[in-house]
Amino acid sequence: MSASDANSAIFLTDTPEQITGKVIHAFNGGKDTVEEHRVKGGDCEVDVSYQYLRYFMDDEERLEQIRQDYTSEKLLTGELKTILIEVVQTLFTKHQERRKEVTMDIVRQFMTPRQFSFHYWFIFMILKTSKEKYFS
Question: pLDDT value at position 124?
């Protein structure tokens, strides 16, 4: 994907309209005609919409059913893209709503350096023992 092309990826800040446009124009694994797709099915390995669903869909059973339907001529490319649009828009809208709730106080609290209750000497001893054991 090209970093200079804003349409080459779906961003967390994209609007639902931008998501729809990007998904509609994404490369697909369907065939040239509906008739050919109904005979041969789609190719999930190259279909960008399906690949996105692999990351964004939580329901593994539904994802497997979509894969089977797409490769066995039951589900067309447009229908697959519609499923992806629904999943991504829902997920990204929730993310954007939560992001609006983050204040500078929360950012400062998160980014403030603090002392860990972690004992570095313990790691040093493990490394020293491992080094002596394996490299002597």
Answer: 65
